[in-house]
Design goal:
This protein is an alpha/beta fold and about 450 residues long. Helices cover about 40% and strands about 20% of the residues. The model has no long low-confidence stretch (mean pLDDT about 95). Bound molecules: nicotinamide-adenine-dinucleotide. Belongs to the aldehyde dehydrogenase family.
Length: about 450
């Protein structure tokens, strides 16, 4: 329920711009108040949000709290704890020929910013950027994904009841509404989603010289070295891959490993999947559903890309695809031609680390690169010889829960980053100040 139903996007932006012009959003006290209110929303209305996430994605309540609601609460707590310190002017040395003088930087809010979110983590990926925008003292227009309609409706209903309505607005809608929004002038646009739409966003932003953050996706590889404990590898890999039915931007997309390790890993994965979701994952309360029929049909077309180790079954009426592991997958098979974004894990065989590195470097820069290895040399080589948004050894996906690490992509996986103080940097201008006494 939008709070001003008849308002056009231009009206919304004008109203928020008028609020920003009063200076109300600049004091630390206002920022803290908004963050505390958002925290209250998440704790008091967590169950409503979890129910919406279940309706949209079949997300279990535990997972909804862990990966969306509590995740965002932790991001707020970290920000509340450090914001005053992050906002302190940063002094820098002044060259001799200018002294006496002082020089420092201050963080200026940008104004009115736009956050456009996708459907896969529709609470976290809308509200974590909003946390940064508010912490930096901006007004914000939040555009949830129409493909998670229950969550979109819940957020649109709740945000105006907790936050400053003249500083934060939710605009719901699909392509036409987003296109109208993008025709407005914003001071920053923060977009999470796919690269095609990322290009549309950046083109629209260019009209107004509006800076953008693009949080995109791609295929995130996993290298599994010889001689690693495959029970541990399989458990951590499966938990990261099949959470949210594989619809996670940093989900391990495919595995690169030598043929012998591949044979052993496939057995370990089949075992771990039985532990995680039981004999019939369709009956597990912890296993999610594919967001819509379009994605279900797309994923169905990828199931024949290799030898099925486990899974491979599906049910269109329930948008269910079993957790699936495919072995002996050829690099040119359909499943390797696009970001999977679903519960299918291909094992691709390479001779050794050199071949794995060449394979990774031959393709778009991934959002995340993962490796399981006991070798420091291998870790060093992967760090030095590959480029990716993030790099994690021994545990996929969890790097984005470290609030002091920047989260973002490079190349085709995006530009800019956020979380913690990186969100503050993204949503402010670091203003240079020189102060030379007159006397
Ligand atoms: P989506 O379809 O929900 O689209 C994202 C947003 O773009 C929505 O709000 C939608 O309304 C808007 N949109 C769609 N078409 C548009 C158009 N023509 N003009 C303007 N706006 C438009 O989500 P999606 O793109 O399917 O999301 C999945 C992709 O996002 C995957 O590639 C995934 O890897 C990536 N992703 C990245 C991150 C990250 O943090 N880097 C997180 C989640 C998802």
């Amino acid at each position: 329920m939008p709070h001003h139903p008849s308002e056009s996007p231009a009206d919304v932006v004008a109203r928020l711009r008028a609020t920003f012009a009063t200076g109300r959003t600049k004091p630390l006290a206002w920022r803290r108040e908004q963050l505390e209110a958002l925290r209250r929303l998440l704790t008091e209305r967590g169950d409503e949000l979890a129910a919406a996430l279940h309706a949209d994605l079949g997300k279990g309540a535990k997972e909804a709290y862990r990966t969306e609601i509590d995740f965002t609460v932790r991001e707020i707590d970290h920000t509340l704890q450090h914001l005053a310190q992050w906002l302190r002017p940063q002094p820098v040395p002044v060259p001799e020929r200018l002294s006496p003088a002082s020089a420092y930087t201050v963080q200026d809010p940008l104004g009115v910013v736009l956050v456009i979110a996708p459907w896969n983590y529709p609470v976290q990926l809308l509200l974590a950027p909003v946390v940064g925008a508010l912490a930096a003292g901006n007004c914000v227009v939040a555009k949830p994904s129409e493909l998670a309609p229950a969550t979109s409706r819940a957020v649109a209903g709740l945000l105006p009841r907790y936050l400053d309505r003249d500083a934060v607005a939710v605009v719901e809608g699909a392509v036409p509404e987003t296109t109208d929004l993008l025709a407005q002038r914003f001071d920053h646009i923060f977009y999470t989603g796919n690269g095609q739409v990322g290009r549309i966003v950046m083109r629209a932003a260019a009209e107004n010289l509006t800076p953008v953050t693009l949080e995109l996706g791609g295929k995130s590889p996993v290298f599994v070295d010889r001689g690693t404990d495959l029970g541990t590898v399989a458990a951590r890999l499966a938990a990261a891959k099949f959470m949210n039915a594989g619809q996670t931007c940093v989900a391990p997309d495919y595995v690169l490993t030598d043929p012998q390790t591949a044979r052993e890993l496939e057995k370990a994965l089949a075992e771990v999947l039985r532990d995680l979701y039981g004999q019939d994952p369709a009956e597990s309360p912890d296993y999610g559903r594919i967001v819509n029929e379009r994605h279900f049909d797309r994923l169905s077309g990828l199931l024949d890309s290799g030898r099925t180790v486990t899974g491979g079954t599906r049910d269109r009426a329930r948008r269910y695809i079993a957790p699936t592991v495919l072995a002996e997958v050829a690099p040119d098979s359909p499943v390797m031609g696009e970001e999977i974004f679903g519960p299918i894990l291909p094992l691709v065989e390479v001779a050794d680390l050199d071949e794995a590195i060449a394979f990774i470097r031959d393709r778009d820069k991934p959002l995340a690169l993962y490796a399981f290895t006991e070798s420091q040399t291998t870790r060093d080589r992967l760090t030095r010889e590959t480029s990716s948004g993030g790099l994690a050894f021994g545990l996929p996906v969890a790097h984005l829960t470290v609030s002091d690490l920047p989260f973002g992509g490079v190349g085709e996986s995006g530009m800019g980053s956020y979380h913690g103080r990186y969100s503050l940097d993204t949503f402010s201008h670091r203003k240079a100040v020189l102060d030379k006494p007159l006397g």
